[in-house]
Design brief:
Blueprint (H helix, E strand, L loop, with lengths): L1 H29 L12 E10 L2 E8 L2 E8 L2 E8 L1 H9 L1
Antiparallel strand pairs: 1-2, 2-3, 3-4
Length: about 90
């Protein structure tokens, strides 16, 4: 009987530790702790806004330059190049 109680307690503690670990991982994931830094990547999407059902507006960084891109129905169009200082100042807030 004593062996059964010890075995049950160890199993319950193992499941509890697993649940705590999953909880911590989920919290870190939700807060963005697992994201790769955008400064190391050549291309990154800074922000995306849906304009209509099949139309989106993207602000992207390619190297050190920023662009506004429109995407709709399978095509992408460069709208304009953005001023890097303005984009970086806005994304820092």
């Amino acid at each position: 009987m004593n062996h059964l109680v010890v075995s049950y307690s160890v199993g319950l503690a193992t499941v509890g530790c697993g649940l705590v670990a999953f909880y911590v991982i989920a919290r870190v994931w939700k807060s963005g702790g697992f994201r790769v830094s955008t400064r190391r990547r050549l291309l990154s999407i800074i922000e995306t806004a849906a304009l209509a059902q099949h139309a989106v507006l993207h602000v992207v960084r390619i190297g050190r330059r920023y662009y506004a891109l429109a995407g709709a129905s399978g095509n992408v169009t460069v709208i304009c190049e953005l001023v890097a200082a303005e984009v970086e100042a806005e994304s820092a807030t």
